[in-house]
Amino acid sequence: MADDPFSRTYSYYSEFYSGASYSWSVPSGWTINSGQGTFSIGVTAPANPNPGSITVSSTICTNSYYGNKYISVDDDGGPPLLRASGGGPAIFGPNPVVDNLKLIEVANQKTISNVTVTEMLTGRPVYQLSTLVSGESLSFLPLNPGYYQIKCFVEDIEYTENIIKE
Known about the structure:
- This protein has 166 residues and is mostly beta strands.
- Helix content is 0%, strand content 56%.
């Protein structure tokens, strides 16, 4: 969330757990200004920032948890616009998409399977794949602008993400 609409300073947070330790990472060129080691950070994006993932890992007792958010900042003459997607075990981007939607990252290099992309307005499946690996893309070019939903499994966990096609 931007603190000032014309700044490039944003705040991110994770669930707070008493006694947990937190470790954050940001895309190349971004700066963590405050909060490293806590459940909340303040970051600054550089001019013309590259998109990427903000990730957090937390350890509670002996259990580790992982979260991520794919982000990009667009400048169109007005204030910077922060776009975020994901937050689950798989990161797809860009979102909104114009031509190709890429599977950017899968948490802990796990296998993604049973991938279905559905047009939300009609409920019509437009893609069905048995597997998808990091770096592979789905062409959204022939699809109509609108809202789509990706459902997949990362190991045995079902993951769903909404995608906007411009």
